[in-house]
Design goal:
heterodimer; A: 244 residues; alpha/beta; five-stranded mixed beta sheet; 8 strands; B: alpha/beta; TIM Barrel; six-stranded parallel beta sheet; three-stranded mixed beta sheet; 41% helix; globular; DNA_repair_put (chain A); TIGR03915 family putative DNA repair protein (chain A); DUF4130 (chain A)
Chain lengths: 244, 434
């Protein structure tokens, strides 16, 4: 039994797929460094990330399968589900064989699994577009904390650069200690750790209060339906909502 | 009165308007501006009644010159009244938007002084948002029936969606409950918006810079259960609106008792199931290729509250079923109860690779609870032994109650489901002898 271990970057993952393909090996798992379990029966192979090899795989997916498939692979990588590496590997193997129609073959387990994870990540991404709540800080920056299940902060940042193009903002993924930051020109993702307590801008509290009141008054009492509310907006996302 | 007090009163007054969708427009942000529209629409929160909050839904004022019996804002109703200034609405919209609470503004109003004056105020607000604040988020504006053509036209160039609420589905209903309104005054602005939309599309083909007019289309709302109108009448009206006025959506609002007027029916709770059935039928009209006449007719003018309209249709046309999942065309797949647009497309695409059996369908995530009675997979049927619509109907209703044990609808007994069984037969079966 062979396990591939890569450094956790997307390039690393693509390099592992390159290696598995050309060494004609069939790794049991492709894991990121921080997920290794100790087991002496398993042969571990460390993969050195190689930009060129990764680039080759990247281009091959785009030209031999489809750009759709490339997006799927990236989303599934960001899902951080435990066996994402090997699912992607098997999906790509089939994809290189079938070509651009691979995604239609939902009766195949790997294609289906890819699709399910992809749907999950895109659903969470879409949820977050609506559920990020910014607080204005005393330096004028809009600060939005989130704790998503998947690593989607980079997927939602471009959307906010478009609609909030004239503001400085930070979206902080507290679970992963990373943040997308925007300075009215470009955005980056950085590791951050908050040391001091953030001070809110003047007037911030009053807008929060207005929003809470609005939220309570817009619901029709005769139709109260908490089950529906929770289905539409899972409770795991309530932590940073102003209104909840 | 401060803004907080006004907000409380005017959001309370706005909540009976159902529409909150922010879809259909692809307005882009401008340089130095704030906001954009997203074609799919984005929900930002869900209130305690489970409805999505996408737009900041608010009335400009709830002072009204009309006295419509069904409406909470009628002038004879004793409640607190308030009126925003245009600046207050603009400030709330911009600041809520920057905090990502909302996707845009849904501005409506009671009729204050006269229709023209009210519409003029609404126009000012949207103009201010677009021109002074450079706001490019979604705006849904109510057109006030009876306002001048010019004001409505002008407002249409600033907003993404416009709507005129019909509320009562028949002229008799209007006469009884809203004697100051008539059908013509409501239909006229809808016709106007439709014509302007078509014109604008034509003009934009020639001159790209000519302004868009209501790019996300128009909608309307009908109240269900405030008058004696049956479902067939309501559905026919919707069908006519979709075909004749190119409406994007018709919303249905279960009547919430807001008044003890003797002209209104006495209801214990809003007719939510009926509202749900109408929405299901509405979807069947728009996405599944059904006609209103197929779903209801004069001998059966109301929907079955136990079964959804599609199941009901399938049971009345049981001779068309079962269909073979590997061969049926897209239109027929869509008519199988339990199979929706997404499921049908998944079936069509994956059966190109290999024929599907029952377990493949399960894997694809297709809900087979209802579908199993109406399909065969590779020739094998997984439903009941014979295609008897009464048996299938009973089975479907029983399944439904298995999943919702807490519904407070009357408990079903074996005798109500199988009326052909007499009491004695049952005793014999249970006892085994006699």
């Amino acid at each position: 039994m062979v396990i591939y271990i890569y450094d956790g970057t997307f390039d690393g993952l693509l390099t592992s797929i390159y290696e598995a393909y050309y060494r004609r090996e069939n790794p049991e798992k492709i894991l990121s460094e921080d997920l290794i379990q100790e087991n002496f029966l398993i042969e571990k192979i460390y993969i050195d990330t190689n930009k060129e090899k990764a680039e080759k795989v990247y281009k091959a997916i785009e030209s031999k399968i489809s750009s759709e498939a490339l997006r799927k692979v990236f989303y599934v990588y960001l899902s951080e589900v435990e066996n994402h590496g090997v699912i992607i590997f098997n999906y790509l193997r089939l994809g290189f064989k079938i070509g651009k129609n691979v995604d239609l073959n939902l009766a195949n387990n790997f294609v289906l699994e890819m699709d399910n994870i992809y749907q999950k990540v895109s659903r969470e991404r879409h949820w977050m577009l609506g559920l990020v709540r910014f607080r204005q800080l005393d330096n004028g920056v809009f600060y939005g904390p989130i704790e998503p299940e998947h690593n989607i902060v980079g997927l939602i940042a471009p959307y906010f650069t478009r609609r909030m193009s004239n503001e400085n903002w930070v979206i902080h993924d507290i679970r992963r200690n990373i943040a997308a930051m925007y300075n009215r020109e470009e955005w980056i993702i950085k590791d951050i750790e908050l040391k001091e307590i953030l001070n809110l801008a003047e007037g911030e509290k009053s807008y929060q209060c207005l929003w809470k009141e609005y939220f309570n008054h817009i619901s029709i009492k005769e139709r109260t339906n908490p089950k529906l509310q929770k289905r539409n907006m899972p409770m795991k996302y309530w932590k940073y909502l102003i209104e909840k | 009165m401060n803004v907080l007090e006004k907000l409380k009163i005017l959001s309370d007054a706005a909540k009976y308007d159902v529409s909150c969708s922010s879809s259909g427009s692809n307005r882009r942000n401008k340089k130095g501006g704030l906001g954009e529209a997203s074609v799919s629409g984005i929900c930002h929160s869900w209130s305690d009644d489970g409805r999505c909050i996408s737009l900041f839904k608010i009335l400009f004022t709830n002072y009204c010159i009309y006295d419509c019996a069904y409406c909470v804002n009628r002038y004879s109703n004793d409640l607190s009244r308030a009126m925003f200034t245009p600046e207050e609405v603009v400030d709330l919209t911009i600041n809520f938007y920057k905090r990502n609470y909302i996707e845009g503004l849904f501005l409506s109003s009671a009729v204050y002084r006269n229709p023209n004056y009210t519409m003029e105020q609404l126009l000012q607000i949207v103009k201010k948002l677009r021109e002074e604040e450079n706001f490019n988020g979604y705006i849904h504006l109510k057109a006030i029936p009876g306002a001048d053509k010019e004001i409505i036209e002008k407002a249409g160039t600033y907003v993404d969606r416009m709507s005129v609420n019909i509320e009562l589905p028949s002229n008799e209903g209007l006469k009884l409950l809203a004697p100051q309104k008539n059908k013509e005054s409501i239909i006229k602005p809808m016709g106007l918006i439709k014509t302007k939309m078509i014109q604008s599309v034509e003009e934009r083909k020639k001159f790209r810079a000519s302004p868009k007019f209501v790019p996300a289309g128009q909608t309307t709302q009908l109240i269900v259960g405030a008058t004696g109108d049956n479902d067939l009448k309501i559905l026919k009206l919707s069908e006519g609106l979709y075909k004749g006025y190119n409406l994007k959506r018709v919303y249905y609002s279960a009547y919430v008792p807001v008044s003890a007027n003797p002209k209104l029916p006495v209801l214990k709770s809003p007719p939510l199931v009926r509202e749900n059935r109408l929405y299901q039928a509405d979807w069947l009209l728009r996405f599944y290729g059904y006609n209103a006449d197929e779903l209801l007719d004069n001998s059966k003018p109301n929907f079955d509250l136990e079964l959804d309209p599609k199941c009901d249709w399938a049971l009345r046309n049981i001779h068309l079923f079962p269909v073979e999942i590997n061969r049926a065309d897209y239109d027929m797949l869509l008519r199988v109860p339990g199979i929706g647009v997404k499921s049908a497309m998944r079936i069509i695409s994956s059966r190109k690779f290999s024929s599907l059996d029952f377990y493949d369908l399960k894997k694809l995530g297709i809900v087979l609870k209802r579908a199993r009675y109406f399909i065969t997979c590779k020739g094998k049927h997984y439903g009941l032994k014979n295609m008897n619509s009464e048996y299938i109907r009973n089975k479907l209703v029983i399944d439904k109650y298995k999943n919702e044990p807490n519904t407070d609808i009357e408990q079903l007994s074996m005798f109500s489901l199988y009326p052909s069984l007499t009491m004695e037969d049952n005793i014999i079966k249970i006892g085994g002898q006699f």
